[in-house]
Amino acid sequence: MTRKLTQGSATHPLVWFAAIICTVVAIAVIIVSIVVFSGYMIIHPRVPFITVTSAHLDNFQNTEAGLLETEITIVVRAENDNTKAHASFSDTSFMLSFQGLNIARLVAYPFEVNKNSSVDFHYLVQSSSIPLSPELMDQVDISLKRDRIVFNLKGNLRGRWRVGLLGSVKFWGHLNCQLKFHPSNGTYIRSPCSSRAK
Ligand SMILES: *[C@@H]1O[C@H](CO)[C@@H](O)[C@H](O)[C@H]1NC(C)=O
Ligand SMILES: *[C@@H]1O[C@H](CO)[C@@H](O)[C@H](O)[C@H]1NC(C)=O
């Protein structure tokens, strides 16, 4: 293979200029990477998350007319484990359902969670007139007999971190879990329910 090498008597100034620009850009990229990486190491970001910390089934019964009456207390904690970054949650919305039947939407207005802290939300869900199909009425009867009722809680959260000089970074999470109770005394049967990625 032959390759023709043309070599001028002097390197064209534009070539020098391009080489200098490339070097400067390369150095800038390295510096920015180091700053971002060390910022990351110092701040050690952890995605804020939401957990169901406790719950209670205050009432659960079906009426003669086939309507579901229920009252549930759910305590949801928004946690920001970052010691150097505030978190602001903007879209937080969960749907509580029973056997595919939507019972209530739990929504939080945009809120802030300070560094290394958490905020608790107490939701009281009250429903008195959810019409049940005959199949669902059977399900309710079975659940009451077995003293075990299962609800589903599903939804999303979105927000932003404010990470000092690095600006703000978006985060999001997804919650999909079962809330189980003993209807006889309303006790919540604990099981993991968190938007934190495993
Ligand atoms: C974060 O909070 C925990 C418990 O509230 C506390 O023990 C810990 O010292 C705090 N860490 C920082 C860096 O503030
Ligand atoms: C509620 O009832 C369940 C099952 O009957 C039982 O295991 C549980 O200990 C009870 N909880 C309380 C607080 O009484």
TrEMBL record:
The keyword Transmembrane applies. One of its GO terms (cellular component) is plasma membrane. Keywords: Membrane, Transmembrane, Transmembrane helix. GO terms for biological process: defense response to other organism. It is found in: Membrane. The chain crosses the membrane at residues 14-37. Its main location: membrane. It comes from the Eukaryota. This is Late embryogenesis abundant protein LEA-2 subgroup domain-containing protein.
